[in-house]
Amino acid sequence: MSSLRDEAQIAIAIARKDAVAELRGRHATVSTLFFSAVVLLLFGFALGPDSARLAAAAPGLLWLAVVFAGMLAVSRLHLLETDDDALEQLALYPISRRAIYLGKALAGLAVMVVLGLLVLGAVGVLFAVDIGAAWLPLVTTVLLGAVGIAAVGTFYAGVTVRLRAREVMLPLLMLPVLAPLLLGAVKATAAALAGDPFGELGAWLQLLVAFDVIMVVAGAATYGYLLED
Amino acid sequence: MKTRVLGFVALVAVAVMLIIALFIVPADLNQGDAQRIMYPHVASAWLGYLSFGVTALAGIGWLWKRDLRLDAVALAGAEIGVIFTAFAIWGGMMWGRPIWGVFWQWEDPRLTTTALLLALYVGYLLLRRLTDDPERRATRAAIVGIVAAVDIPIVHFSVEWWRGLHQTATIGSPDRVLNPAAPMAFVGTLLGMLAAFTLTWLYLMIRRYQLARAELAREEAVRRQRIQAARAPHPSAAPPEVAR
After folding, report:
1. How far is A148 from B113, CA to CA, in rounded Å?
2. Among A113, B150, B198, B199, whose Cα sits 20 to 30 Å from the Cα of A84?
């Protein structure tokens, strides 16, 4: 029986494999990074040139861009596995299914952290938001958001990866589930940027932590059933 | 036969309760006639949540027992839940327009939660339609249903933090409807409507379940037929002619 330590080792091995593939091919990060840049640009056009209005909307725009790009990134990581039926191969190994999920989610997390931090920087530049003053709570929010998106995204990418209408089904299933994360992350970012005048930052970060924990547990508990078929 | 009787009873009950709610019970002092929408609205919202609860439990049951009948229950719950939830949202909007002045009140946690709930289960139903193999479909649906059910409380909780102006839960909190000061006519109508709608829900659940079983049996029959046709020597399946 594999101990927790073995599971962690397997998960890290899977994540490292994805990271190496990502570093060599850069399928997930580069394209999604440019995608989120385009999204930010279009948000700017949609909301008009009024810089005060753009700065006020910046937290929401940041997280919409991160969520959309993250969805693409995490699904790219799963497509990697279907190309040569690698997922079937992975499922045949006598290892815990939970470890496979955690490994894929870990790789997704790494991509999401890079993506989130870069988009955060881009928002700071494009919408004239002062990130430096509140960098610690902002980075914390990005990290917590990245965990949640990776956890939920890996799960739904696994559900949809073998569907015909994968491109439509992934956002359709995943985005409503991510709604609390979006809400918490936007509120936390807005609070951090404003210097947390109402002392609500902690509560929103707690919400994100709770979301992350619940979704990682739910994903780890159910993902294995996907590999049965 | 028994199901038909249940359906008839449900129909009569809903008709009677509608007449009571629309014509007999006095109008609310503050909200006027608009408040009458609340009777079917509250009842259908409650049945939406009940349906999705049934879907989640049936999904867990499928993963555990691997009995396709449980998956049929899950499907019935999701589909009927979507109908009742959509009806609840529609009723809420009809009520919101005269009372709040807007169809859609963003600050109301229950409205936004319910809309997300609807999206979650529409996705669930679409996912089911995209998977052909019954057991694979049941498994995918079950885990998606479970994760959706896990998400609902978080959604509700997070949206609640936005601070809403929705009336606090009516039945749940003792200071509202179950308050002895609340006029018995209102309480009685609401509870009667709940009972009538729940009977209807039960009837629809049974019928949808039966239909799901029949669909599955037909899928199975078609599959068997195809296998047999593939095995039997077919006139067109003559050995390929040798070229040249």
Report:
1. 19
2. A113
